[in-house]
Amino acid sequence: MSGGETELLQWARGPGFVLAIAVFVFGVVLRLFEILGLGRQADLSEAREKKRGSGWQTILSRSFNFSVFNPHTALNYIVGYVFHLGLFACILLLIPHIELIRGVLGFGWPGLPTPLVDAIAVVTLLAMLVKLVDRVTSPVKRLLSTWGDYLAWLLTFLPLLSGYLAYHHLLWPYPTMLALHILSAELLLALLPFTRLMHAFTLFFARWYNGEIFSRKGVAS
Amino acid sequence: MSRAQIEKAHQAFREVMDAPTASFFSSCVHCGLCAEACLFYTETGDPRYTPIHKLKPLRRFWEQEFTLLGRLKKRLGLSRPVTDDELVEWRELVYNACSLCGRCSMVCPVGNDITGMIRKMREGMVASGNAPEGLIGATTRAVTIGSPMGVKLPALQAQARHVEKSTGLSVPFDREGAEYMMLMSSMEIINYPEYLEAVARIFEQAGKSWTISSEAFEATNSGIQIGSSDIARELVSRVVGAAEKLKVKTVISPECGHAYTAIRWEGPNLIGRAYPFKVKHILEVLDEFRASGLLQTEGMEKARMTFHDPCQLVRRGGVIEQPRKLLGMVAENFVEMEDHGTMNWCCGAGGGVSANEEAEALRLKAFQRKKSQLDALQVDTLVTACANCRIQLEEGLEKNHMAIPVVGLTEMLAEHLVEQGEEGSGE
Amino acid sequence: MADEKTLEQRLRQQGISRRGFMKFCAATASMLALPQSAVPAIAEALGKAKRPSVIWLSFQECTGCTESLTRAHLPTIESLIFDAISLDYHHTLQAAAGQAAEQAREQAMKQFHGSYLVAVDGSVPMKDGGLYSTIAGVSNLEMLRETVEGAAAVIAIGTCASYGGLPHASPNPTGAVSVEELMASGEIETRPLINVPGCPPIPVVISGVLAHYLTFGAIPELDQLKRPKSFYGDSIHDRCYRRTFYDQGKFAETFDDEGARNGWCLYKLGCKGPTTHNACATTKWNGGVSFPIESGHGCLGCSEPDFWDAGGFYQVLSEPTSPLGGAAVGAAAVGAAAGAAVAWQNLKKRDEAREAHEELTVDELEKHS
């Protein structure tokens, strides 16, 4: 049917995006309320005079905490960083994405040359594959992992993969790949608050609480 | 187990829910790094000992009861309820394979305080009858007799008289208005009587008044270890009541790890109010004496030695530099283990593990971590400041045929006290 | 009217040498991305072509496609094509008018039944019985239905005929549809169809498609939107001479800033090059003089369906096309309400548990040991 795939693309760029953002905002706000609404009881013990560290400090320092360093964790730390930084670069430093954000928020920032982001995407995809293999083969991760972990992986992998395929005009015609890319990103947005991916928001609270719990005792965590 | 029992666990889990716990559970991405920090995992390779895995039932409960999606899942039959069988299975993970050492909380990339959550999960475990027998016994004795090891006042008084005889100093009981009230752990009373003597002599030199309450001398809080705030509260209240009655300024927690956690950090929250007195660990007090010149020592230990950081004192308690400063007074050949201070490795016996016979084999396996630390360092003496650590270290060293003496820090300091000249009776 | 002379004979008459004719065939071959070995086949076929009848139906259109076709950059070649086909019906170009024009159409349909080509420009209105566009009192739909019946093939020229075009743009008051839609819904007979979209299409694209049909008697290879791949296979973005600037991240931010003067990429000014398939970047317009991007304006995407409704011409391609603000605020409000309700329930549950707390005593403990 003439225009079938264009209709898909137009829907993704228009109503699809609105729907995804709406579900995303709804979900994040709901989850934050339901998590933080439980509150924290005041600690009646006497805090140390010299507190050392703080919740805010832990928010930053935990990103640079490599205190458990052995060959296996080294792989995790390094690949974990490569994946996260690569993902952020692909999302936030690609010009079309920045223009999208500018269209939504009203401001943007400079981006990287597109072929460079393309290379980063490849590295990020590889890092994700390494992480998947690790999750399936490492005894600890295999025991811990639930279908939710694999879903989170898939939701993150698809936009990267489809973006790469679209850019290189692989698999299906470009308008179709672009539509799939946008739809996969919208799926990621919509489902994020209801999956493990919510850690993107809650980790700040978790780290803050951790820092506060330890710092009043005089330990910088 | 009956329906009523599991319901008790559920109620207890509900009571302990708070925003930090919800944040922690929401943030965990199953990365498994916590396992690498936990000596029960590293020394056995058993993935079930992964710290966050020990919390699986609690996590599921939180999701089912406190999140919208979780409730929907439960209603649709997509999330099974937390059952008796599951908690029975989890007893080993929550009690045998965790010493509440806190190392996992320090490394989790998203910042989870896993240790704090294990403490909370134990509330449900103990309420539903899923605590280990050994701990139940210790706790019962603690409440009914006054000591988890069954030590009664006469035994302590006998030890006090022995100290008085050998030092010529007095060990004052129930002295109202004394500056410091001393607590003692049963482990010290039974195994390390040198501690009481050391304390008497140091306080004499420092010229500080102190006392022991005959109504509440036990420092060990089995309630914390078994995970019952009710029982922990009962035990702490005895100490608080005695301290208020005797109108002391400071209560001293002795060389015991969880005692410090109980009285210093959990206590006010258990009884619902701040104390009218201060709480300090004996090392904090000794370091204050050192800083104000009240602690006079002479001579140095020549042996190559290191300090084992008791987890509840250092990482979970914040008393980090004091042992080092004190050791600096008397040890000229002090070296640190590679992971020391707030990233030290647990001895393996904290958190009630030592009172739990079921956990014996695992506890000794966990000691292998300390062994490898010591093997790497090649020391002649091991110093520590917790009687429970001390017993575990001694047992572990013996079983591994390592001839390294373990010494309490207070005891070591007392050995180097400058002699006062005339013997007088202390205040 | 079609006559019996072959094209080659007519050319001789007009004084076009064989050499000139062969040059045209070579140019056509290269435009269709055919190898040089195809040139003799093109020459032979065209040379023998006996000017098939072409009936050009103009419906809801602006006549831009006809204007484009007649903007011959090589008048000799374009008029060659017109001499190579017999354009038996065309509102703008035919001399006849009124009844005479309709009779010419009907006669061509009868005489060349089964072999004539139908070219359509403009969309077909369907609303209210199709009364929004009629010719001689006959609705477009009716005329198309009638004419397509005896056609060998149909060429939809321009975006309106290919996809519905401007009339089809929201809110589509006339119920405009494309030729393909009418075939798909069974309103008209299905015949081999080529879509030649563009608003308007490039002149040589139109002539190239006709040349292919005349040469091979068959439809060229088409993409999924029935467009000839040889002209519509690449996107503008992929053949654009400014692509290197896109990749480097050098963009014009306004129409007269330094970037614009330096000829940088027009993506941020709304260029739809990445999602538009056409030959503009290679074949260009006005005899290869220029094309919109080269003249400093972003591509409108005019050879793609619904380009009128695909966000504004100056809206960046990756920007969302629907307004977001209200939905986001509304969603936040609903989320907050739901969240507050859940939080309230959570607190109630916890507080009730705390209130119902039964003190754990050693007697209880003893029971379980």
Oligomer: heterotrimer
Q: Could you list the spans of chain C in which at least 5 consecutive residues all have pLDDT below 50?
A: none
- If helices are DSSP runs of H or I spanning 4 or more residues, what is the number of helices of chain C? 16
Helicity of chain A, in percent? over 70%
Annotation field: number of helices of chain A: 9
Q: Per the principal axes of the C-alpha atoms, what is the gross shape of chain A?
A: globular
Number of strands of chain C: 9
Largest interface between protein chains, with number of residues from each side: A-B, 60 and 60 residues
Radius of gyration of chain C: 30 Å
Helix content of chain C: 40-55%
Strand % of chain A is under 5%
| Gyration radius from CA atoms of chain A, angstroms | 21 Å
Q: Report mean pLDDT of chain A, rounded to a whole number.
A: 93
The counted number of beta strands of chain A is: 0
In a few lines, what is going on in this structure?
The complex is a heterotrimer of chains A (about 220), B (about 425) and C (about 375). Chain B contains 21 helices and seven strands. Chain B is mainly alpha-helical.
